[in-house]
Specification:
Elements: H1 3-7, E1 12-13, E2 62-63, E3 66-67, E4 83-87, E5 93-103, E6 130-138, H2 140-146, H3 148-164, H4 166-180, E7 186-191, E8 206-209, E9 214-221, E10 224-231, H5 245-266, H6 276-288, H7 293-334, H8 341-353, H9 356-374, H10 380-396, H11 398-401, H12 404-413, H13 419-433, H14 436-439, H15 443-455, H16 462-478, H17 485-492, H18 500-515, H19 531-548, H20 555-561, H21 567-570, H22 573-580, H23 592-611, H24 630-654, H25 659-665, H26 668-671, H27 676-679, H28 683-699, H29 703-716, H30 724-754, H31 761-778, H32 788-802, H33 807-830, H34 835-855, H35 861-878, H36 897-910, H37 930-951, H38 957-964, H39 971-988, H40 990-1012, H41 1020-1023, H42 1025-1039, H43 1046-1060, E11 1066-1067, E12 1074-1075, H44 1081-1085, H45 1097-1107, H46 1121-1131, H47 1151-1154, E13 1161-1162, H48 1176-1182, H49 1204-1208, H50 1210-1213
Helix pairs in contact: 2-3, 3-4, 3-5, 5-7, 6-7, 6-9, 7-8, 7-9, 7-10, 9-48, 10-12, 10-13, 12-15, 13-16, 16-18, 18-20, 20-23, 22-23, 22-24, 23-25, 24-28, 25-29, 28-29, 28-30, 29-31, 30-31, 30-32, 31-33, 32-33, 33-34, 33-35, 34-35, 35-37, 37-39, 38-40, 39-40, 40-42, 40-43, 43-45
Length: 1230
């Protein structure tokens, strides 16, 4: 060490805080900025620091030619801030940064006397703005914070200062890293004496001095023992690399760039001098073992970036050395000694200058001292940095890091509990498997962690699942037979996943493994198949995959999963229609089941091509791609429309007899651009399509087919479309034909009913089929001009008077009447009719409501359910028609209590049924139970219709309370609907929702008391029937939400307390004590205490004590347990009101430990390992090979085993700080 550095021993180093302000000085005085400015009237002026003289070399001289250097000689390049390195009076290297400012008269066309100048636009020379040089003294931290352009200069100047005085330069570098940690204190350095022996180990501590209020951290950075001091209240939540805003984000980037440039600038000079990296490694290892998060986080980032730069540099050196070696071999083979002698000498010199082994030793030592302790850090941010940089090392320097000794860390971190760490592991592996050279070396790794990677496809984070699926696809491309058939089946099912990127990744895997042509086709074959035949074969394979797979039966999700993975397949309209139009017995003919699946695929693809978005229920993801260009999608839709306009009549004609196949085909006109009929001269195809629709209406009587035909007619009859002129008359003729056929049949039927006679089955079948056709068209088209309401009303009136009519006729009459009334309401909304017409419409509506109310108790289940649904929908419409005295307000109607009771009784009897069997309401239906599933669907539909009345305040609170009672009992089948009802009701009115929850609990409690009476067993409150009510109250409390729940909780508390003490006390049979009947209701109120803010629970407790009537026994007696439980629920709080005299919570993680004792005490910090640069090579070389475990263990260990960490890294893991916990690598993903 130089003499000067020895004199500097023990001096303080000034340190800037994270904001760039100088806060601590040395013993000589405050370390301030020094500015040098120039006055316009003088040549050179020097501004000196108050109380001190700046060295004369700091003066800056300005001449007419521009800015010169500090001596006034020579020119400097203009446009760049000049920097020179000097030492301040503390002996530290600083930079003199020169900024330029303009000073002088404003530019214009007048001189100083106000007279005009000779030229416009540019003032004379003496009145131009003159540049003023402002020179500031900045530290290394400030230079890095200045911006990207200053980082390169900072590194170059520091390297130059290191060559001049390496001790002071190293102290400057250490001070820089300490400032980046956000430390606002100071750094002292004392020489490390080798004769101190083991006593230095006891100095490597972190402690708190209660007298001075400072923290001390002492660690070894050879050849010094550094001591960092900072105040007690250090802001751990803010330090430079995590600071908010764009400035600190750029600083983090500059900080990482500084560490990388430091290695790049010194790798050929001072990097391997045995002093620089030894000190840096000692310093970083000491900081990474700190228990303070800011020190540990910043130093870990610096160490990881330093390792990345070392790996990049060494990989370049190895590449150049191999290239030189190949050139030498070429020269030796040429045997031209004289002519190429100089070339051989240059190549030998290059090989001798490179030092890859020395850099490898530095890499291994730094890896062992920083990465190994920190990859298991308690902070997920540090673990993310370690895993992400490890992936970069393996990619940059595979010669060293692409080894199982390093890959094992990525494998272990796949089990991390933090999602971001697992994501970085998957991304690192994905980058390795993208290259075949590196993928071929990962066979053993994948064999060890195959089960874990497969299980991560079911991770809780959807982004991880999609990346994992892409990783598995890459693995399947590189390895043959790596997955079994069952594993492929497991992976293929994710094409139906709700997360779209995951489904797309599974679709890519399906394309690679199922739809890709065999290797022999198109390569070795003489006659390779053309594209059309290959698409046909792939389509058949896809159909078989859907039929044979025991997965979901959702074709739209399968099509969307393949939409981006196989666009040439799912958008190939010619291929799909050719397969459908293939005649029976043809070469490419499909079976009936295959045709049904292909039609579903075709319709789903047509819908997605027209709408441009995935099916409902599929999440797009955070990184959803931009929507396809509107022009491009319009062109694709026009091309698709031109194709289907031609082939749709053929498809309808072929599958006209099969209702399951023709029904989805009838949806295609809704997604096509029907204007192509006029633009492309395809009018003949429109006539064919309308003719096929007419035939289908007359041929089928199935409701699904008829409704599909009606919607297809609606698409063709759209006003303004090119097909409207031909389709509208065709639709009118069809309706005329149906009405003309129905009128005589109804007349005969009514005449026979009045006479007490019955029509035959044939005539009744014709009436029912005609009514079904008219109902289907009435749902889509306005048929008011045919006056069907009068005919349907006569049927319903006759039914109520006579009492005998087929159920199907009544069913169709109800639907037809309902649609007729809706179209009249729509017409009145578009154009307000006279008041007489509105009163007549109201009379019709009330008459229909009475009819539906009568049919609620009909013996036919189908008819009663249809009447319930129609009545609920109509009540929802009529309750939102505005005030009763204006316009459509005459139609306003809300149900009375009698009608509400009828609806509630219907819901109890037809929705919440008692399931047979041991499972009861929680029974899980299987695919074979088609009838039960269909019935469950209708029950859910009826409950949803009723809950809409509750959400829109059509029904009273009692109706909502009745529904909420079944929340837990029927949670498996109807829990989602009831929960959504609670959520919507809370969004509309929180207090009304709270009152409905309280009313529900009161009703259940009253039923319980009526059943079991006042005599209760305390055990019953824990596991008896009453406990189910407590669980329901707990669920209700959770539905109140997290924000703005205090008003609802207080309302429930006040009303609940009033109900608990509302009834008069009753004397017990034994003992003669007085007991309140509703006192146990306090046990239910206790579940809502958690929603009262902690600061307000004292007020709630006082209100509870004031609500207790006189004469009630005190707390603690056996029969007053409800009072005690409710009182304890209000007292459970961790909130402590903070007064002005009390101190703020400790910001440092060690404050709680230090404040327990009145004397300074040792913190639970790590002890810095006492190793010197002499042991660097030996420790780094030993890190490459796993150590042989000693006694009691096997001689051969699997390096991928989790327990292997304890044997290989026992020295490091035992010396970690107590506050930093190791994560569990055997746990599942969160």
């Amino acid at each position: 060490m130089s003499e000067r550095s020895g004199q500097e021993e023990g001096n303080l180093m000034p340190v800037c805080d994270g904001g760039g302000q100088d806060t601590v000085s040395d013993t000589g005085g405050l370390w301030q900025r020094r500015l040098v400015s120039e006055h316009p009237a003088e040549g050179v002026t020097t501004v000196r620091d108050p109380g001190r003289d700046l060295c004369p070399a700091a003066a800056v001289q300005e001449g007419p030619s521009g800015i010169r250097d500090v001596s006034g000689i020579g020119f400097r390049r203009r446009g760049r801030a000049t920097r020179r390195r000097y030492r301040n009076e503390a002996g530290q290297f600083i930079s003199m940064v020169t900024f330029f400012e303009a000073q002088g008269a404003t530019s214009g066309a007048q001189d100083a006397r106000g007279q005009g100048t000779c030229r416009r636009g540019r003032p004379p020379r003496k009145y131009r703005k003159r540049k003023v040089a402002i020179t500031a003294e900045v530290t290394l931290f400030e230079m890095v914070a200045l911006g990207k352009n200053s980082v390169q200069t900072a590194v170059e100047e520091w390297v130059q200062s290191y060559k001049e005085d390496r001790e002071l330069a190293l102290l400057d570098l250490i001070s820089f890293f300490v400032q980046c940690c956000g430390c606002e204190g100071m750094v002292t350095a004392e020489l490390y004496q080798t004769n101190q022996g083991n006593s230095v180990v006891h100095k490597m501590t972190e402690k708190f001095d209660q007298e001075t209020g400072l923290y001390y951290k002492k660690f070894l950075a050879y050849p010094w023992i550094l001591t960092i001091m900072w105040p007690e209240k250090l802001q751990n939540d803010f330090y430079p690399i995590v600071g908010p805003g764009p400035f600190w984000k750029r600083f983090r980037v500059n900080f990482c760039e500084f560490t990388e440039l430091l290695v790049q600038q010194t790798h050929s000079s001072v990097l391997c001098d045995g002093h620089l990296m030894d000190t840096v490694i000692c310093m970083l290892s000491g900081l990474t073992n700190s228990a303070v998060h800011s020190l540990r986080h910043t130093s870990s980032l610096a160490a990881m970036k330093l390792l990345t730069a070392l790996a990049s540099v060494n990989q370049g050196i190895c590449t150049n050395r191999r290239r030189s070696q190949r050139l030498c071999e070429v020269e030796n083979i040429a045997k031209l000694k004289g002519k190429h002698k100089y070339c051989m000498e240059v190549l030998d010199q290059r090989r001798q200058q490179s030092k890859p082994v020395a850099i490898d030793n530095i890499i291994c030592a730094l890896f062992k001292r920083t990465f190994v302790p920190r990859y298991r850090d308690i902070s997920s941010d540090i673990r993310v940095i370690c895993v992400a940089e490890l992936g970069c090392w393996i990619k940059l320097y595979p010669d060293l890091f692409l080894d199982n000794n390093y890959l094992k860390y990525i494998g272990w971190m796949l089990y991390d509990k933090d999602a971001s760490v697992r994501m970085k592991c998957i991304l690192a592996l994905k980058a390795l498997y993208e290259k075949r050279e590196s993928a071929m070396k990962l066979g053993l790794f994948f064999h060890k962690f195959k089960k874990r990677i497969l299980s991560m496809t079911q991770d809780r984070q959807p982004e991880i699942t999609s990346e994992c699926m892409q990783l598995l696809r890459l693995i399947s491309e590189h390895y043959v037979g790596v997955f079994s058939s069952m594993e492929y089946v497991f992976l293929f099912q994710f094409v139906y996943a709700a997360y779209r990127p995951m489904a797309t990744a599974a679709g890519e895997l399906i394309c690679k493994r199922l739809l890709a042509p065999p290797p022999q086709e198109g390569v070795f074959g003489q006659n390779p198949p053309d594209e059309f035949d290959r698409n046909i074969q792939n389509m058949k394979t896809l159909i078989d995959f859907y039929l044979q797979g025991e997965f979901h039966r959702h074709v739209p999700y399968l099509v969307d999963g393949l939409w981006d993975a196989a666009p040439a397949l799912v958008r190939n309209w010619e291929c799909m229609t050719a397969l459908l139009l293939e005649p029976r017995g043809g070469r490419q003919a499909l079976t009936s089941q295959q045709e049904r699946v292909l039609i579903e695929i075709l319709v789903a693809a047509v819908r997605q091509a027209a709408e441009g978005h995935p099916p409902a229920g599929r999440e797009l993801g955070k990184r959803a791609s931009r929507e396809v260009d509107g022009t491009r999608r319009w062109r694709e839709r026009a091309s698709m429309s031109r194709h289907f306009v031609k082939v749709l009549p053929q498809l309808l004609s072929k599958f006209a007899a099969d209702k399951e196949k023709v029904t989805p085909l009838l949806q295609i006109p809704q997604y096509c651009n029907l204007d192509v009929y006029d633009k492309d001269g395809l009018g003949s195809y429109l006539d064919s399509a309308l003719l096929e629709l007419d035939c289908l209406v007359q041929r089928h009587s199935d409701v699904a087919v008829l409704e599909a035909c009606a919607r297809a007619y609606g698409a063709y009859c759209c006003e303004g479309g090119s097909a409207h002129c031909q389709a509208a008359p065709a639709c009118s003729r069809l309706v005329d034909m149906l009405v003309d056929a129905l009128t005589p049949l109804l007349d005969v039927f009514l005449q026979h009913e009045k006479q007490g006679q019955f029509l035959g089955h044939h005539e009744m079948g014709r009436i029912c089929s005609t009514l079904r056709r008219l109902v289907a068209f009435y749902s889509t088209h306005d048929l008011s001009s045919w006056n069907l309401y009068e005919k349907m009303d006569s049927l319903l009136t006759l039914r109520r008077h006579q009492g005998s009519m087929p159920t199907e006729v009544i069913h169709c009459a109800l639907q037809c009447t309902y649609y007729a009334l809706l179209w009249q309401i729509v017409a009145a909304t578009d154009r307000l009719p006279p008041q007489d017409a509105l009163l007549d419409l109201r009379r019709r509506l009330m008459k229909f409501c009475v009819a539906c109310r009568v049919y609620l108790s009909h013996q036919s289940k189908v008819l009663s359910e249809k009447a319930f649904i129609l009545l609920c929908d109509l009540l929802l419409i009529l309750s939102h028609q505005g005030p009763e005295d204006t316009g459509l307000g005459l139609l306003f109607f809300v149900p009375d209590h009698i009608l509400q009771g009828k609806l509630l009784s219907f819901v109890r009897e037809h929705v919440f049924l008692e399931e047979s069997g041991s499972e009861g309401p929680s029974r899980i239906y299987k695919e074979d139970d088609a009838d039960e599933l269909h019935e469950l669907f209708h029950r859910r539909n009826m409950l949803a219709v009723f809950c809409k009345l509750v959400v829109y305040n059509v029904l009273d609170l009692s109706a909502a309370a009745e529904i909420y009672q079944f929340y837990l009992k029927h949670y498996h089948h109807f829990g989602d609907i009831i929960k959504e009802t609670m959520t919507r009701t809370r969004q509309n009115d929180r207090l009304r929702n709270a009152l409905s929850l309280l009313l529900c609990l009161q009703q259940l409690f009253q039923k319980h008391m009526d059943t079991y009476g006042l005599n209760y067993d305390p055990i019953e409150l824990i596991c008896g029937p009453f406990y189910s009510i407590r669980l329901l109250a707990r669920r209700f409390a959770l539905t109140l939400g997290f924000d703005r729940a205090r008003e609802a909780a207080h309302l429930i508390q006040r009303r609940g307390l009033a109900y608990a003490f509302s009834e008069a006390p009753v004397a017990e049979a034994e003992g003669g004590r007085q007991r309140y009947p509703n006192l146990c209701f306090l046990l239910l109120l206790a579940e809502f205490s958690c929603k009262i803010p902690p600061a307000e629970r004292g007020t709630a407790l006082a209100h509870f004590q004031d609500s207790i009537p006189e004469g009630v026994p005190s707390f603690g007696e056996g029969d007053m347990n409800p009072l005690l439980v409710y009182r304890k629920s209000l007292m459970k709080t961790d909130y402590v009101p903070q007064t002005e005299e009390e101190e703020e919570p400790a910001a440092n993680p060690f404050d709680a430990i230090c404040k327990e004792s009145k004397r300074p005490q040792e913190l639970p910090a790590a002890t810095c390992s006492t190793w010197t640069p002499d042991t660097l090579a030996s420790s780094s070389a030993g890190d490459r090979e796993p150590r042989t475990p000693s006694r009691g263990r096997k001689s051969k260990r699997d390096i991928f085993d989790v327990d292997f960490l304890s044997s290989e890294d026992s020295d490091n893991s035992s010396n970690e700080d107590v506050d930093v916990e190791g994560i569990s690598v055997q746990g599942g993903s969160d």
